[in-house]
Amino acid sequence: MIKVLRKAIASHIPEEFNLSEDELVNLMEVPRDIKFGQVALPVFRWAKEFKKAPPQIAAELADDLKKKNIAHVEEITPVAGFLNVRFSDSYLQSLLFKECEVNKPNIGHSEQGQGQTIVIDYSSPNVAKPMSVGHLRATMIGQAIYNISQSQGFKMVGVNHLGDWGVQFGRLALAYRMWSNEYDFENEPMQSLFAIYVRFHEEMENNPELEKQGSLEFKKLEEGDADLKALWQKFIDISLNEYNQVYDLLGVKHDAVLGESFYNDQMRPVEKLLEEKGLLEESDGAMVVRLDEFDMPPCLIRKSDGASLYATRDLACALYRHNQQKGDQLVYVTGIDQNLHFKQVFKVIEKMGYEWSQNCRHIGFGMYKFAEGKMSTRKGNVIFLRDIVDKAIAMCTQIINEKNPELENKDIVARQVGVGAVIFNDLSCDSIKDVKFDWKKVLDFEGDSGPYIQYAGVRCKSLLEKFEGEINYSLTEALSLPEERSLVRHLLCLSEVMRTSYENFKPHYLASYALELAKLFNNFYHKCPILKAEEHIKLQRMTLVSCTLTILEKSLSLLNIEIPNKM
């Protein structure tokens, strides 16, 4: 919606500024303070070319544009090195109302990605281990990027790259044979599987022979031993059943589940390709691709004992995602500690001569910080994601029982609020930063939290339920109080925020937008009478309430957060 305003100005910028209309539109910003209007054009880039100070360029451009009497523009003001433009309240309101009426299901969507496919790798837990709270980041950041990118017209392919291969499966098979009868695999399969995993590593510290035996078991699995393969598949099935329960709670979906094992037969061809291209070199018995020209250490392709490495598998994986899944962009959502690994993999792809290496992106994320300290699945010292979600739901149930015991569908509302609280706490933080998990903050109905935003949406629903008239999106009289104008302006920014969230793969932009929207709406709700206002004012404000709900629902749905009907 803001783009319409930008285009209105860009189309009148003189030719000597030597930028296309689209380039000017992308250069424009939204002023931080509403008093400066809705559109700001920074002019610093022309200072050298015009041999003038930015404030002078802005002043002269303002004088030029004022003479053109651009429709719906009320004020054009040069401020330092910016040209600020304010449009009429009536035009802004009509623009918002029309968009909410015509494009309600797809408000904020665009077609900039039409004809392009993004393959995105997210969540990707390791088989036989319950997802830890650390997987929440990989899962929800990835799902939000998927949702937002899809709204911008891209065809999305979400991949769950399961950790389903490696020597740990030989160890698990050995552990299962030794101890499975001591655990309740029938009723608690995942808990039992994880218990024998932890137990094996504890036993291995005192009995190194177990490590050798586990390696031998895995070698048999690699060679195709039928019994071991059946046991390996059992571990995968148990794990996927557990993961899918968590995904269902979080509203997460993948288009393909392709574990590491899927690429087993594709790694040797990758090595051969690297060899044919003259990129493989021997180094202390290992085979590497040197990356000296990029100031990076060599990328290890094959160890001295002949075993392949993660880089080999990820190269095979990238080729498959580009060639078979037709990905124009390949996106990987994993911990920030894997930054160097993916930089190396992408540079090897570049050295192989594939231009699409430029469209490979690693979205690294920080860690969760708890009082319990660093987590280690081998020691069993881990905070499970399922436990966090279940606890959030339980705490919400308790709050509802205390504050609104007569509420209908309490279980559904507790799930919506509890899950929304956990997701928002994660996505409101820039992905590259660590997340501090504090239950008081996560479930604070008055603070910067998911429940606070959800409650704003519930207020909108309550007002609409009590309103006895009909919403009229064709109203022309403008709402002009400061609280109304601030809300209208912010609502108009949705498409802009969705676009920048996609372009930067930063869901927290959208989370911050939703939080600010909830704050602006609550300010409007408390300071502007709605249902008790005069009839014509009530109708205008209720239409604004309807627009707020539409845009709140869209913002939160892209983050996988639902708004309850009541709270």
Secondary structure category: alpha/beta
At the first level of CATH, the class of the domain at 385-558 is Mainly Alpha
Radius of gyration of CA atoms, rounded to a whole number: 28 Å
Strand tally is: 13
Tell me what the CATH architecture of the domain at 385-558 is. Answer: Orthogonal Bundle
What is the CATH topology assignment of the domain at 385-558? Isoleucyl-tRNA Synthetase, Domain 1
Fourth-tier CATH superfamily name of the domain at 385-558? Isoleucyl-tRNA Synthetase, Domain 1
Q: Low-confidence segments, ≥5 residues, pLDDT <50?
A: 374-379
**Strand portion, in percent?**
5-15%
End-to-end gap: 31 Å
Query: What percentage of residues falls in helices of 4 or more residues?
Result: 40-55%
How would a crystallographer describe the biggest sheet? 5 strands, parallel
Q: Major sheet: order of its strands?
A: 6-5-4-10-11
* Tertiary shape: flat
Report on the architecture of this protein.
This protein has 567 residues and is α/β, with parallel strands linked by helices. Among the domains are: 86 residues, 2-Layer Sandwich (Gyrase A, domain 2), CATH 3.30.1360; 174 residues, Isoleucyl-tRNA Synthetase, Domain 1 (Orthogonal Bundle), CATH 1.10.730.10. Helices cover 52% and strands 10% of the residues. The chain has 21 helices and 13 strands. The strands form 4 sheets. A 5-stranded parallel beta sheet has the order 6-5-4-10-11, with helices on both faces. The protein has a 3-stranded antiparallel beta sheet with strand order 1-3-2. A 3-stranded antiparallel beta sheet has the order 7-8-9. α5 crosses α18, α17 packs across α20 and α20 runs antiparallel to α21. The longest helix is centred in the middle third of the chain and has 25 residues. The chain starts with a helix and ends in a 9-residue tail after the last helix. About 1% of the residues have low confidence.
